[in-house]
Amino acid sequence: MPPLLRALRPGQWTKNLFVLAPILFGKAAGDPERLAATLLTFACFCAIASALYLVNDVADREADALHPVKSRRPIASGALSVNTALATSVVLLAAALTALALRAPSALPYAAAYAVVVALYTFVLKKVALLDVFVVASGFVLRVLAGSAAAAVTPSHWLLLCTFFLALFLALSKRRGELLGSGSASRKSLDGLTVSLVESLENVATAVTIVSYALYTVAPETMSWFGSDRLLYTVPFVVFGLFRWRVLEVRGAGEDATNDLFTDRGLLATVVAWAATCAGLIYSVS
Predict the structure, then answer these.
(1) SS3 of 69, please?
(2) What is the pTM of this model?
(3) Any idea which fold 1-155 has?
(4) Which residues of the chain have pLDDT under 50?
């Protein structure tokens, strides 16, 4: 891909699929207007994320140039100029926020908050041990809230909890991979952390994610909303997916969640099967 397109990190846009979760679980996917607003919000979050990736890579270009893998990034390698990157970032950010203001204004505050949080993370918060992974997880919650606002559905507290703890698990998994790969030298927030400590925190996040999701499927408000407790049948997909992820970690994965998802057929099949089963159960019941 051209340097600018690579710098936008389109592979990372899959993280913004969390924007679509509320319209699925809110039984609103059949409404054209709400679906259009949600898809626009998804696209805008992709643009905002890419804009902030450019800023991050500009800020980290000197450190990235010394990293065995990150040195191949377009800005760190010199393939993309700083001025071009920053100009593109401004255009993407302005276009995304303007589009939301015009077409999905209810989602705008969450998108703006996401941009501010990621900017603070880029320049300050990513250097603070443990706080950095909590900030990353909060970004996923803001995605869900933005999707909820765009789809005009009330987000379930359980959905927000599941999102937060799943994102926390993935962020901890990435930190574990970085510790194993380059040690604490790869990231300041890793100073004083050990692989065993991060793994113990992962275990907690994994367990809470499973329990939160299981409780969500049988919560009275969930069964009332969907008119059935059949969502419980999707719990095995979640458990298997998380366990599969831990297996991949042992095999050396975990540092790049998006790459791991698309390179492991078992994990990808599990995610697709879970989403398809949820959609089938939700819309067949309704």
Answers:
(1) coil
(2) 0.94
(3) Tetracycline Repressor; domain 2 (1.10.357)
(4) 286
